[in-house]
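ARCHIVE CARD
CATEGORY: sequence design from structure
SOURCE FIELD: tokenized fold
FIELD CONTENT:
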């Protein structure tokens, strides 16, 4: 087999593997964002009720910060992919 063709195939396999890893990472992060948004919606619905507490509000801020971090991380990854 031609070594240049073999090298070409190996390069494509590596790119495909990298793409699959990046795709999985994006899916994981989007899933985490979705989970955080759902959780935040439940928490927001508790504000102003008997379930409201300083701890609830603290957790809500923490979830918001995680969501913002993940969103910014995904934006950076998308820019680097191009």
């Amino acid at each position: 087999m031609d070594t240049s063709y073999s090298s070409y195939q190996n390069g494509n396999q590596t790119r495909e593997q990298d793409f699959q890893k990046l795709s999985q990472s994006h899916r994981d992060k989007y899933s985490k964002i979705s989970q955080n948004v759902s959780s935040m919606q439940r928490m927001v619905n508790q504000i102003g009720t008997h379930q409201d507490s300083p701890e609830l509000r603290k957790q809500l801020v923490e979830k918001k910060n995680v969501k913002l971090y993940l969103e910014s991380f995904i934006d950076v990854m998308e820019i680097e992919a191009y």
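CARD ANNOTATION: The helical segments are 3-46, 54-81. The two ends are 33 Å apart (CA to CA).
SHELF: design records, drawer C
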